[in-house]
What we know:
Helix content is 16%, strand content 35%. It is of the alpha+beta class. The protein has a single domain, classed as RRM (RNA recognition motif) domain (Alpha-Beta Plaits, 2-Layer Sandwich), CATH 3.30.70.330. A hairpin with a 6-residue loop joins strand 2 (29-34) and strand 3 (41-48). The termini are close together.
Amino acid sequence: xxxxxxxxxxxxxxxxxxxxxxxxxxxxxxxxxxxxxxxxxxxxxxxxxxx
Length: 51
């Protein structure tokens, strides 16, 4: 399942996001979306977990 996560702190990294969701089970991938121009987080991301 692919989970959309919004309202992230702009300092949250993909590794932070993965660590948070590992409390609930196996995480296949976690990605915070980064703005290409500013190289800063856009404040949202995706976590993929097995069904």
